[in-house]
Specification:
The complex is a heterodimer. Chain A is an alpha+beta fold. Helix content of chain A is about 55%, strand content about 15%. The interface between A and B is medium-sized, with 25 and 23 residues.
Chain lengths: ~550, ~140
């Protein structure tokens, strides 16, 4: 019986239908044959019987066997129907099961058991022990669905390899009817879906881990600005939780709007890659309590096939960096002060000598009734009082811990004011003082008091650097450079400096003016520029003049006004 | 500033970049009947010396351009000028920071003949000037 069942299962659907049809026809044929045989034998017996029992008895006999005939016919139809039903169930049952499985898969359940036909293990049939083969001990799908099996002369990938696999003994051993083959395809499809889903889940988890465990804060939004990603660092920095933000808040809750407007500016275009965004810069992020945290932030527009899909910004907390930077500035400044106490004391001693000299000469003039000496002595006293006053102011400015007071101010107005103050000094030395403003920059954010002092020092130095025998010229220019920094440039045609002196003037209190200067003025300039996170560059040629360039990060509104 | 010379008076050259200090020193020395010339730089001092050899030089240590040390080294390295007595006008710190022994061993010459510390006291200045002139064999001059 089992042999018959195995034989039946190995038949394909066409053969089974043919078998069923043939069986029914055979039964019908058998019935007809037996019926014919019975009728013929009955007719033969009727002829003998008619002679013996007469016509009436014959009819009675016929009436008697008719129910038997119909009963036999009915039984035959019933048996055929049961047989056909049984066989058709055998055909439709796997189809129904497959339909159920398909429904399960379509609902997302890929862990369904699609066991149709006999599972064969290729490594057992082929006596292959290639453990590196992807099909080895793979009991989920048959080997012809597995890519990269090292079977000689076979295409490596499915479905190209299928034609050759169908000739293989492994395939032959497994081969079932069309339902089994359909189930195999189903099984393979589910397997592929499962592995793809697993790969996707793995990739998704990896990305989630990357985003969550990043040392940088990451906030991403859709194209409408609604936040979709808000990682752990972003939570810590802002004080908001992920679920309070995702899908509920936008960029405006965390950054100044004009920072994000820059996200659509071209950032990179090397022919193959076009990137829109803004390079990392200093700005602030808003906290839940309304306070601001300084951050280093860069942003990129996210595009897929030139279609905007969202925005992302990466940022990190720079409070510690700022603190360390301030400490460094302070310690450098204090070190410079410490190293150059001798320089200051020398200046002070010179001033004291000037004062003592003035008093001495004035007294002698008085004793000798010499008006010229009296005037000279008095002039010396006045001059040295002015010098010591300037020195004390410079020292205070350099050493005191004054916090910068950022505010909106016009850079042009600032340079104009400085030029107006220095105009008298320049005129007295017959020096042309030229002011060139920047039409593009109406206002910027900086400390106008500190920058005023800074520029006053530089312009004063520039005037002092011009020897009396030269047609002097000092230019004060404001502009924005290619990196969008706010620049103040002071250029003179004075004596200039050698490289050695240029290197010295910013390292400590060094003056080229001898006892007339302490070198403190430039240190004050450097301190103020550093506190603005700007740069001070000096370009000078001995005998030709110098150029002092202050470049500050251009802050239009990234700091609160 | 060329000072009026009087025959028989000691001639002193004061080199300091700060004119107030030069004037102050000159005023003190002139009060003691010294003939004084002042120079605002080492180069100017050298030029003056070419015209007239001074009996004494008062030199500021810290000056722009050629410093007092450079002037001292050139002066003591030159056979014609190495015997001119020289007083350094300086702060205590400057005096301590300079390795005079190294300079002296290189030059095979004496250390500066005297030091006057700033701020300058007229009495102290005159004492140092007179001591140096006495020690270096220059006849003392009293007002």
């Amino acid at each position: 019986m089992d042999t018959l069942r195995t034989f039946y299962r190995k038949l394909n659907l066409q053969s089974r239908i043919l078998l069923i049809t043939m069986s029914i026809l055979f039964l019908w044929g058998l019935f007809c044959f037996l019926g014919f045989r019975w009728v013929v034998s009955d007719l033969q017996s009727k002829q003998t019987f008619e002679h013996s029992i007469g016509d009436e008895a014959f009819h009675q006999h016929l009436q008697k066997i008719r129910p038997i005939f119909f009963a036999s016919l009915g039984s035959l139809i019933f048996v055929s129907s049961v047989f056909a039903l049984r066989l058709s169930k055998d055909l439709t049952k796997p189809v129904v099961r497959l339909t159920d499985l398909a429904d399960e898969i379509s609902q997302g359940n890929l862990d369904v058991d699609i066991a149709f036909g006999q599972h064969v293990n290729c490594w057992e049939i082929k006596h292959c022990r290639k453990e590196e083969c992807a099909a080895y001990e793979n009991r989920e799908v048959q080997c012809w669905f597995v890519d990269g099996t090292p079977c000689e002369g076979y295409e490596p990938r499915f479905p190209q390899k299928l034609g050759q696999c169908r000739q293989c003994e492994v395939y032959q051993a497994h081969r079932g009817d069309e339902i089994v083959q359909l189930a195999d395809s189903f099984k393979h499809m589910a397997y592929k879906l499962k592995t793809s889903q697993k790969d996707l889940k793995g990739a998704y988890n990896l990305q989630q881990c990357l985003i969550e465990n990043s040392f940088d804060g990451i906030i991403a939004s859709d194209m409408n600005g609604v936040i979709l990603i808000f990682n752990r660092v972003a939570e810590q920095l802002t004080g908001f939780q992920d679920d309070e933000v995702v899908g509920k808040k936008t960029w405006r809750n965390f950054f100044y709007p004009d920072l994000l407007e820059e996200i659509h500016k071209p950032l990179l275009d090397d022919g193959s890659t076009v990137l829109q965004g803004f390079p990392p810069r200093e700005s602030v992020i808003f906290r839940r309590d309304g306070s601001l945290v300084p951050v280093w932030v860069g942003g990129v527009s996210l595009t897929v096939k030139e279609q905007d899909v969202g925005k992302v910004v990466f940022f990190y907390d720079i409070r510690e960096v700022k603190r360390l930077r301030q400490n460094l500035i302070d310690s450098e400044r204090m070190a410079a002060v410490g190293q150059t106490v001798a320089s200051i004391s020398h200046s002070i001693k010179n001033i004291l000598d000037g004062l003592r000299g003035g008093v001495y000469i004035h007294q002698h003039g008085q004793e000798q009734n010499d008006q010229e000496k009296k005037n000279l002595g008095w002039e010396m006293i006045h001059k040295n009082i002015d010098i010591i006053s300037e020195l004390v102011i410079d020292l205070l400015n350099y050493s005191k811990e004054r916090q910068l007071e950022f505010q909106r101010y016009s850079p042009n107005k600032l340079t104009k004011e400085v030029c107006m103050i220095m105009e008298r000094k320049a005129e007295s030395k017959n020096i042309q003082l030229i002011h060139r403003g920047d039409d593009q920059t109406r206002e910027a954010i900086f400390d106008p008091y500190a920058m005023h002092q800074c520029l006053l020092n530089i312009v004063s130095n520039a005037i002092d650097a011009i020897p009396p025998d030269r047609q002097g010229r000092v230019e004060v220019t404001t502009f924005r450079d290619e990196q969008n920094r706010l620049c103040f440039r002071v250029r003179d045609n004075g004596t200039g400096m050698s490289r050695e002196i240029k290197d010295k003037i910013l390292k400590g209190m060094f003056s080229t003016k001898g006892s007339k200067g302490t070198g403190l003025g430039l240190l004050v300039v450097q301190k103020i520029v550093q506190e603005h996170q700007g740069e001070l560059e000096i370009d000078s040629k001995k005998g030709e003049g110098s150029e002092f360039l202050i470049s500050l990060p251009y802050l239009a509104s990234t700091f609160p006004a | 500033m060329e000072q009026q010379d009087v025959v028989g008076r000691k001639h002193v050259l004061v080199i300091d970049d700060e004119p107030d200090i030069s004037s102050y020193i000159a005023s003190i020395l002139e009060g003691s009947q010294y003939s004084v010339q002042t120079a605002n730089s080492a180069m100017e001092g050298e030029t003056i010396m070419r015209n007239r050899r001074p009996d004494l030089i008062l030199l500021d240590l810290m000056m722009p351009g050629r410093t007092g040390i450079q002037f001292f080294v050139r002066l003591k390295g030159n056979d014609e000028t190495k015997d001119i007595p020289l007083i350094m006008v300086t702060g205590i710190k400057d005096k301590l920071n300079i390795d005079w022994q190294e300079i002296v061993s290189k030059l095979k010459a004496r250390v500066p003949d005297g030091f006057v510390e700033k701020p300058i006291e007229p009495v102290h200045l005159m004492n140092v000037v007179e001591d140096v002139l006495t020690q270096t064999g220059q006849p003392e001059q009293r007002a």
